[in-house]
Amino acid sequence: MRAHPHPADQMTPVERKKALEEGRDFDRYPAVPFMSEFKCLFTGIGVWDFWHDPVKMAEAELRVFERFGQDRIVIGPNTRGIAEALGAEYVYPENGVPYAGRPKLSDYGMLEGMEPVDAKSNPRIRDFARAAELLMEAAGEIVPVEASIGGPFTLAANLRGVELLLRDLRKCPLEVQKTLRLITDSQKSCIDMAAEYGLGIAMADPVANPMLVGPKIYEEFVFPYTKELTDYAFYKTGKKVSLHMCGKTNSIWKYLAKYELNEISLDNIVDLEEAAKDLGRFVPIAGNVDPVEVMLNGTADEIREAVARCIGMGEKAEKGYTLTTGCDIPETTRPEQVDVFMDAAREYSRNCHL
């Protein structure tokens, strides 16, 4: 199976991205509904296979792109895959979203026996490397493909447990820093893997939400590692990172502005117009149609209205705009809802001029 340009578009996603980067006219704003396990229900591919079988991973992505023509394909290893490569356990239900089992890092003394993930040899990461190879061969000339590497703080929460990690920030901060160093080096190895296949990098760090940790914690425990990773990814791949942050992030915009970003994707609770005018002076903005109230439960008219409203606000971003959902759409979202989202993106941003 090979990717083909979507018949409703004048440009392929690769052509559109290049036009934007070169300051040329483009047919519409890039549009990326975050779909995650929705792809399983849509394709009939099981959750386990979607995360473990490289052929099934590639098949799912290609079938979803064939239907919707979104502007990016994103595969793992994600937070989950890297955590598993470091020894964590996850539960993969027959339907629904996988979730963490018992935390791996029950005692920080365990760090002494742990090494960063080597993406060249780790069997868990090699699953995603094979999927990357298949997708770049089938779709790389049509649509950008990115490898998600999660976020360092969220990975730490998956290894230690969220509540314990938050407590440890006060009780044993040096051990937290050692954990973050191990994780960051593991992520850098995954970036090396992505660069080998010509992929870009995506990141999402939901536990680093400043509504949960606060801006001071973000500055000390999140910013240095995320800056290191975004700089490294740009150096290794030649492509800037797509970063998603959950929650109301206004208090950390000064940090987000310093990353090498293809876009900063914002939660639907963020005022997109404010973000476009403020943060959009420094980095491209993405967002932020409500994934539940609008994408899952909304009418077709409500989806179209939300898309038009987001484009109207987002296009004010000086550094550029991508239409996205505010987070992953629920896996039970009807495919027709995504059709409306993409059709509206084409309708409300046709023939764009810079």
Automatic annotation (TrEMBL):
<dbReference type="InterPro" id="IPR052024">
    <property type="entry name" value="Methanogen_methyltrans"/>
</dbReference>
<dbReference type="InterPro" id="IPR038071">
    <property type="entry name" value="UROD/MetE-like_sf"/>
</dbReference>
<dbReference type="GO" id="GO:0006779">
    <property type="term" value="P:porphyrin-containing compound biosynthetic process"/>
</dbReference>
<dbReference type="GO" id="GO:0004853">
    <property type="term" value="F:uroporphyrinogen decarboxylase activity"/>
</dbReference>
<feature type="domain" description="Uroporphyrinogen decarboxylase (URO-D)">
    <location>
        <begin position="21"/>
        <end position="348"/>
    </location>
</feature>
<dbReference type="Pfam" id="PF01208">
    <property type="entry name" value="URO-D"/>
</dbReference>
<protein>
    <submittedName>
        <fullName>Uroporphyrinogen decarboxylase family protein</fullName>
    </submittedName>
</protein>
<dbReference type="InterPro" id="IPR000257">
    <property type="entry name" value="Uroporphyrinogen_deCOase"/>
</dbReference>
